[in-house]
Structure formats: structure tokens, C-alpha cells
């Protein structure tokens, strides 16, 4: 019930907004009320109604002004005022009243009107029984918009009853005295479903919009709806097609996998794969199944599967994909060649090492590690782009998962690419290659601060004591983070000869973190280091009590 009530109130509010403004009651002043003439403009600019014109002239002798139009839009009122003023001059005025712009005639002059009428030769006498040609009789004034009549009609309703009755008796002549006037039929513009007379367009025409604009909107909406329907049909059809393809792939995967297993372990003939290899879609499905099976094969079974791959000519498909200009096709070709151990496209893979596409670079690196027998990581010397941490982790996992022989990574410490040098340092630490101590010690003097810092960490983790003297010498010229790593590395390699250096760091450094790390390093030197800390804690030269107690407190460490 509440919803219905709200609906009714909303409709009433909408109706009140759309309705015309309330009409004012007739004034009781002594001023004469104006006479409203619906076709006043035609009467003034045409001589088609002489008797009616005579009656109005006699009626409007300084008694009643004649109102010939009322407009809500001032522009339309100015247009009508300009046209009527050409005929009447100063006898016509425009006033603003009750929200309307009104055109009124204060006095009618017959001579002035006669002088405006067309020459007499245009007036052709005709037989009253002869049908009138609409093109020969046309009013001189055509209103520009339908709002003039509608607005004027609303004003006529507001006139006094007695005035309207007088106008009706005075103006309305006998039917026999009025000539027959057929108005000119304006061509109606019709586009699609609507024309200029459609009630749907009246409000739009009132605001000056064209019929073409409305039809353009309708056409746009119809095209949009049609496009949506077409797209929906395409999407549904494509989805159905993709579902069928997936079902077929699943069926072929199960079938081909069984055939491959039978070939490898039961000795079936490879000729049964010939019919499969004649179709591109099924060839690709067979290649995918061969790669999946090869992951878990070793020894003779792996070689037998590779021989079948070459026998069916599937390697040509992989090489063609590796040379494709699209990067995702290249990646697929690289993987197929790497799994089937085909080295015929290694030159193409080497060219992809420095590609701008990071994924393509990574896949090329993985493929070369699997395809290179003598030096799986020899491609590292050809890398010019940064060797990202993710790529380094991927290669490390590849070594672990596929049992790839671990090379001597110290030779890669001479690479020109700094990221390759950092990868080599990480691999030396990961695989504990302590025989690379001399090369790591030389790396401590590398121009890159990141490499120097990582080399200090590796030397400390692997306890390369030959690097201690180099660290002591380079300490004062390093950045803050490298100095911290040097102190931490010294703590990992206890040596009594370091006590003097560590005490000097504790005395000279103002940074608390450096002092704490130096105190930890002193403590790690054993009993001699602990006695040194106790002596420092009792010293009055500097107040080390807080730092030393913090380090010696076993509840913290």
C-alpha cells in the first residue's frame, strides 16, 4: 500500500511540473484588456480577410490593443516583432508579462497596410467555382515554430469572459464573406520511424532539436543492440568450439600416451604413428605427449623416444617454431628442442639470450643448459642484459632437479656482466666451492660495491681466512653496508690478531650498530676476547658499559 501511495504522489508531482504555469485571473484595473487574435500575424501581413480587418480597425481605435502572439522564448518573440514592425512600424510593441514575451498592436492604419500588400497584378480574379491552387495563395508570414500557437492559446484562456464574447461577435464575419484560403503544405521530413509531425518529437522540436538528431539516436541504439547480439552469438559459438577442442585434446592425450608407452615397452611398430603425423593438430598433440613422457625417462627409453621423434619428422616442427617471429611460439619451440635434446637450432637460441623479452631470455637460458654437453653455463659470457635474481634462482633449481654437472663457477668471476659475477659468487657459496678462495679474494677489489659486499659475505660464510688482511686494508674506504659486512665476516673467522683492529673500530666509530657488531666480533675471539671486553667495561676512557653488557647478556643471544 505504501508503494502504491508513493507511486501516485510521484505521478502527481511529475504532472504538476509538466503542466503550464497557473494562469492569472483577469485584472480589475481600469486599463482595457487586450484582444487576443490567434492568427494575428496572418491578418496583419495578408489582405485575405478584408471584412475582419475592418472590424478590428474600428474596434482598436485607442480602446483595445490587439495581441497577436505570446512566446516563452524571447528569441522567437523578437523574430515575430521584427516581421510585424516592417508593416506597422512603431504601432507594434513587445512586452514581458506573466512569464511570456507578448507582441501587441496599439493602432491599425489601413493605408499603411494597403501599401504593404502585393501589387494588383498579382491579384488574379478567378471563378468562385474554380478550385483554388494552394501555391497561388500563401500567407506572407509563417511562424517559425509551433510554440507560438500553443503559447498564444494558453494566454487566450486567461482573457476575460466579456472581452472574449465581444471579440467573438465583432471579429467573426459571415461565412459567405470569407474567402477560402488553403495553407501551403510544408514538406514533412521523414527519417526512419518518425517525421516532424510525430507527437514524440514535439518537445524536442520545441527546444530546437532536429528530427535527424532523434533518428540518429534511434539508429545508434539499434546498431548497438545489433552489435551486442552479434557479439553474444560469436562468444557463445567460440565457447562451444573451444569446449569441443578441449574434449578432443583430452581424448587424444589419453590415446597417444597409451600408444607411446606401448611403443617404448612392448616393441610395437612406429608406423602406426604415421597417420597421426599427417595432421597438424594431431601432430602437435603427439609432440606434447612425447614431451610429457620424456620427463620421467632415462637411458635407453629416452633415446628410443628421441629416435621416434626424428623418425616422424617432428623435429622440423620444433625448429620451425623456434624460428617463429612470435615470442610465445619461440618459447614452445625452445622447450620441445630442449626436452628432445635436438641441437640443430642452438644458434637461434643463442640469439634470444639478449632479447628484450625477459621470459624469452629465461627460456633460452634453460634450453642452452639442457642442450650444452661440455659447458652448460658457457652462455653466461654472452649475456649483456642484466641477469635477474629470478633467472639465477631458476638455473639453480634446474641444476638440482635435472642433476646437471656443477661447473667451476670461479671462471665466471671474470665476466664483464656484474650480475653474472654475482651469480657466480652465489653458486660458489651454494655449492661450497672453497677452492675458489683466491678468485674470491681478487673479487674484493671489484669496482662494483654490490659485488664487493657479496664477496665479503661469501668469504665470511666459507671462512676464507686469506681474505682477512684484504678486508682490514679496504675497511676505511668502503660504504657503511660493506663495513658492516666486513665486521660480521671477521666475527665468523675468529683470529686473535683481529682484536686490535676491532678495538679500534669500537673506539673510532660513532655508529652504534658498527660498535655492536665490533663488540660481537671481539666476543667471538674466545676467552681472550671476553677478557678484553671486561677490561673495556671497567675503563673510564669511554663509556662502553651499555654496549658491552648488551653483547655479554646471554639472555639476548
Overall pLDDT confidence: 77
SS strand fraction: under 5%
Distance between the termini: 77 Å
Quaternary state of the chains? single chain
- Category from helices, strands and their pairing: mainly alpha
Reported for the largest beta sheet, the result is: 4 strands, mixed
Helix content: 55-70%
Strand order of the largest sheet: 1-2-4-3
* Uncertain ranges: 14-29, 118-183, 202-206
By DSSP, the count of extended strands is 6
Number of helices: 25
* Overall outline: flat
- Radius of gyration equals 51 Å
Q: Quick summary of this structure?
A:
The protein has 557 residues and is mainly α.
Write a structural description.
Helix 18 runs antiparallel to helix 19, helix 19 (about 450-460) runs parallel beside helix 21 (about 480-490) and helix 21 (about 480-490) packs parallel to helix 23 (about 510-525). By secondary structure, the chain is mainly α. The chain has a 4-stranded mixed β-sheet. Strands 5-6 form a two-stranded antiparallel ribbon. The radius of gyration is 51 Å and the shape is flat. About 25% of the residues are buried. A hairpin with a 2-residue loop joins strand 5 and strand 6. Helix content is about 55%, strand content about 5%. It has a domain at about 25-185. It contains 25 helices and 6 strands. The protein has helices at about 1-20, 40-45, 50-60, 75-90, 110-115, 145-155, 160-170, 200-205, 210-265, 280-295, 300-310, 315-320, 325-340, 345-350, 360-370, 390-400, 420-430, 435-445, 450-460, 470-475, 480-490, 500-510, 510-525, 525-540, 545-550; strands at about 35, 65-70, 90-95, 100-105, 190, 195. The longest helix is centred in the middle third of the chain and has 56 residues, at about 210-265.
